[in-house]
Amino acid sequence: MSSTTNSPTHHTSTIGSIGTPSRRNTELALLVFAVAIPVFAYANVGLAINDEVPSGLLAYGLGLGLLAGVGHLVVRKFAPYADPLLLPLATLLNGLGLVVIWRLDQSKLLQSIKQAGTAAPRQLMYTAMGIALFIAVLIFLKDHRVLQRYTYISMVGALFLLLLPLVPGLGQNIYGAKIWISVAGFSIQPGEFAKIVLAIFFAGYLMVKRDALALASRRFMGLYLPRGRDLGPILVVWAISILILVFETDLGTSLLFFGMFVIMLYVATERTSWIVFGLLMSAAGAVGVASFEPHIQQRVDAWLDPMKEYTLSRQGIPGHSEQAMQALWAFGSGGTLGTGLGQGHSDLIRFAANSDFILATFGEELGLAGIMAILLIYGLIVERGVRTALAARDPFGKLLAIGLSGAFALQVFVVAGGVMGLIPLTGMTMPFLAYGGSSVIANWALVGILIRISDTARRPAPAPATNPDAEMTQVVRPS
Amino acid sequence: MSELTLTVMRLGFLAVLWLFVIVAVQVIRSDLFGTRVTQRSAQRAGRRDAGRPQQQTAARQAPPPQRQQPAGGRQRRNAPTKLVVTEGTLTGTTVALQGQTITLGRAHDSTIVLDDDYASSRHARIYPDRDGQWIVEDLGSTNGTYLDRTRLTTPTPIPLGAPIRIGKTVIELRK
């Protein structure tokens, strides 16, 4: 029928159904772009610091290109309909992070206090491990709904990971926060991995319970108040995040988990009241704990008056740090267009200049224009995650994608806000940019899961199966 | 390294970074649409010989698996060739009937995406049965699909020119 009819000529427009295109070539083109930008940055840093194109330029470019290329081929093979932007955006951030870590390695000041020097090669190794995990996720996780089976195992696993730093002998207290463990000479931040496992648990749990949480409620002053017994889960998660705050003294981890739960609860139930409750509870918890926990107290003081903290640190009083003030100065001296890569003085931040505070280096050397671009790239990753959640057809995939991208967004907010002095400083790291194995590896796994969900969501729906009973059914024709 | 070169590199790098962001946003923009609308003017007769309708060649990659009519299928007389939207926001839009299933609804991957508060996300579908008779089936929509004045409860054959109403949208099959 199709090939013999005369196509009409008089209508205005025609809709042809097209399947979501696979967009793999778009991804490849963006990926080439995303590898070229860090190579440019690398050459720029070398020219600015040593007056010559760095000798490792080719090796670095090829290394990053090879990792990204392998990632792309695996996506092409195992997730052909996945979102075309997630991989290039993550690659670009990771590549820029590597360049700036290498740039801070060149700083004599940081070398002298053993804060940098050989960080970049290690970070490249972590990146390779991260991409290996990304590939493993895509190959072995054929369907994200499999994760739903492990809802309660995930809960146990996440609690285990969160409690690991408290185990005597295993946990490490680094600069006041107990969020690291030490295994075979490596420092691992289990919280980064717990983030993903916990998202799986929340998604599986809320998918089952969301009706009870959404429907059984009373209306009061424009808000839906949940029943007392339905408050149980949020109270438990709140209590756990408060315990993290008290025992691990890390505001960031605590905020991240509670925030992720509230976001997922809101998405699952469509009740604004959960957000109001969540904000009130986290504010009450944070203020309550800060009133008696000296480490948190100090972070809050440093946030309220960084200059005083700086002066105290200058006077040599232990327990104080000039980081926060130096970071603000770094942003200030960057101005609108920045000082240029390799030409700033953000190494004055000293401690954690290439991990927690790496954003300050970007702020100084790329200026407001650069930092806005970086934040937009983070925003685009989150947007793609939310878009994936919107397109996902199964509620578990929706919730998981929202949870993961929500956690990612919260982490960026908590770290960037801390470095810029908007909220008290926490011990988390900027995803992909900052130096640190756990963060890079865990976030590549997170991107891997998002790509898997987006592949399932964007795969063209199979044509409706022909009904086997169709021939036998008598079609009733209304007369 | 001279001051000038470094300044040029600094500004050049920012420009390249922003170019990437803009390109990424453009990709998102091209990603938003699930169906492609082709404005047709003159017919190019040569295209039809390939057996592929024009709007399918315009489709980028991976056209969805199509249920083609069996090659020896009896050619019905008075078989409709196109579906026309006669009322609603999409008035004037047509879809050539080529043996494929046409889905209607608010879901972004529907063949005809209805921007209508009264339509469900997967509202109805129109498909040919084995004889080439076009059937409309309501997919459990909230507000129902009407053929003439009757609300559909079962898959029903569509007479030529009979109005099918979904919310504010009315479509009909024409020769």
Task: Give the integer mean of the pLDDT values of chain B.
Answer: 76
Output the number of helix runs of chain A. Answer: 16
Name the helicity range of chain B. 10-25%
Radius of gyration of chain B: 23 Å
Largest sheet of chain B: 6 strands, antiparallel
Can you tell me about this structure?
Chain A contains 16 helices and six strands. Chain A has helices at 24-50, 57-78, 86-105, 108-112, 119-140, 151-163, 190-215, 232-247, 251-269, 272-290, 294-304, 306-314, 323-334, 358-391, 395-420, 437-458; strands at 13-17, 171-174, 177-183, 186-188, 217-220, 223-226. In chain A, the strands form two sheets. In chain A, strands 2-3-4 form a three-stranded antiparallel sheet, with no helix packed on it. In chain A, helix 9 (251-269) runs antiparallel to helix 10. Chain A is 63% helix and 6% strand. Chain A has two domains: 22-140 and 293-461, no CATH class; 146-292. The longest helix of chain A is centred in the last third of the chain and has 34 residues, at 358-391. In chain B, the strands form two sheets. In chain B, strands 3-2-12-11-8-9 form a six-stranded antiparallel sheet, with no helix packed on it. Chain B has a five-stranded mixed sheet with strand order 5-4-6-7-10, with no helix packed on it. Chain B has a domain at 79-174: Tumour Suppressor Smad4 (Sandwich). Chain B is α+β, with helices and mostly antiparallel strands. The chains are: A mainly alpha (479), B alpha+beta (175). At the A-B interface, strand 1, helix 1, helix 3 and helix 14 of A face helix 1, strand 1, helix 3, strand 3 and strand 6 of B.
